[in-house]
Design goal:
The protein is 79% helix and 0% strand. The chain is an all-alpha fold. It has one domain. It starts with a helix and ends with a helix.
Length: 66
């Protein structure tokens, strides 16, 4: 396992913990717009992780061909 893969796995795990985290009491009273904003933020983070994974897979594939 190379450093990039280790780094990506750590970020994915951290993001997973953040997504599963129970909202605080102050989050209970969010309106729909605020919830939509929070979901957009999480979606953006997931997109970033997806791009990192894709990039790492391409790099790994290129290294295996060499």
């Amino acid at each position: 396992m190379d450093q990039e893969e280790v780094r990506l796995r750590a970020k994915i795990e951290a993001l997973g913990l953040k997504v599963m985290k129970v909202p605080s009491k102050s989050m209970e009273h969010l309106d729909e717009l605020e919830i939509a904003r929070e979901l957009d933020k999480l979606s953006s983070k997931l997109d970033d992780v997806d791009k990192m994974i894709s990039s790492a897979m391409v790099q790994s594939y290129k290294c295996n061909i060499c």
